[in-house]
Amino acid sequence: MDKEKRVSEKRAAQSRKEDAALNRVLIWFGAAVVAELILLLLNRYYINATTRPGEIEFQGALLAAFPAILGVTAGGFVLCLVWLLFWRRGGKNIVLPGCFTVAFGILMVIAAVTYRFYASGVQLLCGLVPAIAVLALVYYLYQHEFFAVTVLSALGILGLWLFRKANGGHAAVIYGYMAVTAVVLVAAVLVCRSMQKNGGVLRLGGRSIQVFGRNAGYGMVYLTCGIVAAALAAALILGTAAAYYLIFVMVAWLFVMAVYYTVKLM
Fold this sequence. Notes:
By secondary structure, the protein is mainly α. The protein is 84% helix and 3% strand. The chain has seven helices and two strands, in the order αααααββαα. A two-stranded antiparallel sheet has the order 1-2. α4 (144-166) runs antiparallel to α7 (240-265). The longest helix is centred in the middle third of the chain and has 47 residues, at 95-141.
């Protein structure tokens, strides 16, 4: 009887854990839907404004208001982030400040990218929003090593897309992105090497955080870092035409990883 009771309690705990993960995924998908709606409205009434009465005036008013919108959203994000940190330190429920922090952060990013990059920025965000929702799904429902593989692959795909889209323009932004990605890849390898020696535990300033499982496989993470680095280097050497085909290579690799980790999960 005691054994059956323990098994029943274990199953109930696992069910609660899965329900909590599913609720978090639904929150992320809800935020993604709202953000995508805002982007679609911006694309229609700001980027592709027509000569219909009021649309050109709205476009001009929004352009003039962007600096103020950026200031308000950035200020709101910082205040909500401080609120979230204080509540977390006090052991309180952080759902409410977390939602406000995410909301102000999303609005701040949308305003900044739209104001700086105009149509290209809105197009980029329209693709990033569902990608982030998928990343949330992977993080909560799959192994954390697959989340790392997905993030690294997404960085590579985004870098190739930006390089091809810029086509010689925004050189500082493109090369800056490539440099940051290179740093992230090296850091990912070093961090994974450290965790591999410590059973998936990441040690930061005396704290130990269990990031990966004790039996996690690190080979695919290392291989992904190498593939992303090779793809970005090849694009820089061979040009935008090669970057176009390399995007499909990276997407295919990510699909293979999705199948691989789904089978492992099952």
